[in-house]
Amino acid sequence: MFSVFRNAWKVQDLRKKILFTAFVILIFRLGCNITVPFLDSTAMGNLFQGYSESGNIFSYLNIMSGGAMEKATIFSLSISPYINASIIMQLLMVAIPPLERMMKEDGERGKKIMESWTRYLSIAFSFLLGFGYYTVLKNAANVVSESAGVFGALVIVFTFAAGATIIMWLGEQINDKGIGNGISILLFAGIVSRIPSLANIFVANIQAGAVNAILAVVFLIGIVAMIAFVVFVTNGERRIPVQYAKQVKGRKMYGGQNTNIPLKVNMTGVLPIIFAQSFVMLPPTIVNFFPSLNKGWFGAVVSAINVGGWLYTVVMFLLIIFFSYFYTVITFNPVEVANNLKKNGGFIMGIRPGKPTADFITKSLNRITLIGAVFLGLVSAIPNFVAMVNSSLASVAIGGTTLLIVVGVALETVKTLESQMLMRHYKGFLE
What we know:
It contains 16 helices and five strands. The chain has 431 residues and is mostly helical.
């Protein structure tokens, strides 16, 4: 990994992209320390101290925001509005065929239209979540200034919404001028910034006797093993051999070479985890923002879906599998691959071109996606089982779940650098 960054640093264009990405991350971290007007950061710290110890929903949201939420800063909402908007737009694209056709037939134009709609929906979510977060803080003791009034409430809500919109814009800037996926990079930066705090909680629990030394050692070994396992499976792939027929044009013979179609075990990366967490956290978030809804069947469901609980773990596992298949269908089209092979004279040994090839690729893709989805679900569930064994590890277990995101984003960023270096190598060769 470090050798990839060292080699990329030697390329001027990539060095500029790395520096730009680092600059955007710096702006993001600065925004995570600018307190919203009319809010008491000290009172917020005391409020979230209890959340961190219990490992509840706000502890999770605080980790995802890079600690911005407990400081009541302008970036408190983090990427939550954008992620929720993206989930809804992706589901609508599948549910409404004209939207899917627009994406496929209009090409780049259709993609830009969908991105614009996602932005607008994200801004709407920013105001909704901003108002909900203000409601929670208003009900807490001494967090919102008594002199705030209606004007103060508007300032707080608009500041939260503006902060979430700025984060979305920063992510897009990384997409255009930096390295990797912008939203994932900012999420990565936020989670990594919380690792020292989680480590302090872990050490404090050991010193207090809540976690014995043997369990602590086993837990740390488990984290290292989980990282190694994530790297191993993420890099795993099945290669379907493809052979191209020989073609004679004039006096020259073309084709005849052998290649393959790589099907990655974890083709969708960390997106299923991010989307599943955001989705399962939505009902508890709504109830915490609007306590009056915490009654009846909805309140019972929210109470059952407790962070780290068995129902939360099961729902997360199923949602990860769902979003793994969902995103695989969106990002990889076996029919299109089969048609391209047929047009270029390629075929899979023992499989007829056209529909049989598409069916074979689909069958292979479904099998390998199931392996990757179960892998993600199990690794996501393991920290929750650890928390069930020892409640003192609850907050650290949430950090263990986000560890998947950290490792996944790091691997994806390294692969992006490698592909860009390879592209520049071939470009220089052709020139």
